[in-house]
Specification:
Shape: globular
CATH class: Alpha Beta
Bound molecules: nicotinamide-adenine-dinucleotide
Number of domains: 1
Largest sheet: 7 strands, parallel
Length: 255
């Protein structure tokens, strides 16, 4: 059931990205995975390493987005899909914000995502087809004084998704985004632990339960169900859908 189409998934060393890459491998695609740590990437693709390309490295380094896309094209001669999933967020009170937090957050969430989109978009445009899925967040439209750089970076992801969708539409390339609700990945756990610390909450379980209770569906998202929505957009969604920001947040995000 393997097929010729290829996909690049960033941030695939763990969390949501790992689940997306594994689902795409299970669907028979050739899957390139990018993240900081080589061992974690190899673990992601251990079910079908012969159909995988492991690309370790920091995507914020000069030239890295272009080199990563070029490596996929060099190996397989094509890039059909890109999932911009790699991300970073740090809790930091507004009045204590540090330049380094902004640099790191915007570097991966915004600049690398935009340059990967352009590099992949050029290749896809030549082929006359392609799909790009960006991972945004409900945070992009929330007021989060402890998480300003992250919220701003995800608002930028929404802006890039819209611009890229229009720029690439004449070439038959679709660009959409998924806004996942709270998933208990490493990023989410460390983020909430830090919010609890700053707010002086010692009963972490009660704190987390309160946050969960604010989700209309009354539970957190499973990484697998969010990954399914990303794979649907990348492979199965009707070809008339572009510039869409899909809410997968259990009702938190409503427009
Ligand atoms: N967990 C949630 O509740 C949640 C909610 C909404 C959106 N998101 C988004 O989902 C995506 C996946 O996050 P996750 O929850 O799986 O977190 P995660 O921390 O498990 O995964 C993010 C991955 O990105 C990689 N990464 C970060 N900086 C990088 C860089 N400079 N170069 C290469 N790789 C880099 C990390 O190493 C990590 O493996 C992110 O874009 C995140 O903002 C997560």
């Amino acid at each position: 059931m393997s097929e010729d189409r290829t996909v690049l998934v960033t941030g695939a060393g763990g969390g949501l990205g790992r689940e997306i890459a594994r689902l795409l491998l299970a669907r028979g695609l050739r899957v390139a995975v990018a993240d900081l740590d080589e061992d974690r990437l190899s673990e992601t693709v251990d079910a079908a390493p012969q159909r995988a390309l492991v690309l370790p490295g920091d995507l914020t380094a000069e030239g890295a987005p272009e080199a990563t896309v070029a490596a996929v094209v060099k190996r397989w001669g094509r890039i059909d899909m890109l999932v911009n999933n790699a991300g970073y967020g740090a809790i930091q009170p507004f009045l204590e914000m540090q330049r380094s937090t902004w640099d790191r957050t915007l570097g991966i969430n915004v600049i690398a995502l935009a340059l990967l989109t352009a590099a992949a978009g050029r290749q896809m445009g030549e082929a006359g087809q392609g799909r790009i899925v960006n991972i945004t967040s409900p945070a992009s439209r929330m007021t989060l004084p402890l998480y300003t750089a992250y919220a701003a970076s995800k608002a930028a992801v929404d802006a890039i998704t819209r611009s890229a969708a229009v720029a690439l539409a004449p070439y038959g390339v679709l660009v959409n985004a998924v806004a996942p609700g709270m998933m208990d990945t490493e990023m989410q756990k460390s983020t909430e632990a830090e919010i609890a610390r700053i707010e002086g909450r010692t009963d972490i379980d009660a704190f987390l339960a309160e946050r969960t209770a604010r989700i209309p569906l009354g539970r957190r998202a499973g990484v697998a169900e969010i990954a399914e929505s990303v794979v649907w957009l990348a492979l199965d969604a009707p070809a008339y859908m572009t510039a869409e920001r899909m809410n997968m947040s259990g009702g938190m995000d409503r427009d």
